[in-house]
Amino acid sequence: MTASSPPIAASISDTTDFWSQVAGLLGLKKPVTSEFDLFQAIHQGVSLKAIDALKSEGLFASEISLIIEPRTLSHRRTKRQHLSAEESERAARISRMLTLAARVFGSRDKALGWLRSPQKRLRGLAPMSLLSGESGGRIVEEALIQIDEGYFA
Length: 153
Description:
Layout: H1 16-26, H2 35-42, H3 49-56, H4 61-64, H5 70-79, H6 85-105, H7 108-116, H8 134-148
């Protein structure tokens, strides 16, 4: 962020491009231009293509297990089922934070590095480890917004 540019993270919800990137990570077919669009899409159930897309973006198997357990994933693939509503929520949360972190840090690799690294301000926990729950996702989102606004490095 430069002194003349507005913070990236704080205005994310106003950008169609951000929501399109999140939708792409989730393999959604319908256009997503807002958080409400995302809400509607994930409650219809997200395809297992989301798991493949997140893997191709660099997520490890251990990080995918924050969304769905390997045995359950195998079972869903065999039966050609979608993610459950809860699993879809977790996939959306991770996709949102990965996209936000990439914008804040300037690249997907730097974003993944930050998400995987223990952070002093998170009591030594890696941000990725917090993303299995909504409250942890809010903590990570707030940290990213504060970093973008210059509060923390």
